[in-house]
Amino acid sequence: MSKTKILYVEDEPFLGRIVKESLESRDFEVTMAADGKLAVSLFKESNPDICVFDIMLPQKDGYTLAKEIRNINAHVPIIFVTAKTQTEDVLKGFDVGGNDYLRKPFSLEELIARVNNLLSIARYKNSGSKEVIEIGVFEFSVSRYELKFNNQIKKLSHREASLLKMLYDNRHGTITRKDILMNLWGDDSFFNSRNLDVYITKLRDYLKDDPAVQIITIKGIGYHFSVG
Hints:
- By secondary structure, the protein is α/β, with parallel strands linked by helices.
- The protein contains 8 helices and 12 strands.
- It has helices spanning about 15-25, 35-45, 60-70, 85-95, 110-125, 160-170, 175-185, 190-205, and strands at about 5-10, 30-35, 50-55, 80, 100-105, 130-135, 140, 145-150, 150-155, 175, 215-220, 220-225.
- It has a 5-stranded parallel beta sheet, sandwiched between helices.
- Helix 3 (about 60-70) links the parallel strand 3 (about 50-55) and strand 4.
- Helix 2 runs parallel beside helix 3 (about 60-70).
- It is globular, with a radius of gyration of 18 Å.
């Protein structure tokens, strides 16, 4: 079985070396860059399974790097690792194509858990499930992250598309907030719970053109996804 390939971009030499060696000791194949500009060419050369980017980088910051990577590959998972803690910074990371967010300092075990979680989601999406799903009056393209209605296309972020797919897959019952948080964020911290609220609000807004499609809050438990 081939090793999981990680593109790791970190400009702090000591931290970068420690993380790279630790990941390699766990049987990951790690390509590392110290700046965002070099990372683009390394991405094309190594074709990684997942990317781990610091945000504050020389030459090209992590946000800009993620945007460029998304133009090359729309689906490779991206984890941001940073000391930034403001909600706006986190949401910006998701909006430019990030899939997860890990704050410094972090443990190797937490990083590996998040890597494995995103890879399992990616494998699920590539397992042969339906590419286009009808949700009321909408057509939802799972791999393209697109929601189509009346020839208008709304481009979703990776996190928005993953959440919508998870709600749809559980439409015959109730899905708990904890299950969503553990599957899409890797933990159910208060901070991530607040992010989930933001994404639920966004999806409700995207789906408002069909009153029969509703994300119903089950207080104290989670959500029921009604498609009419």
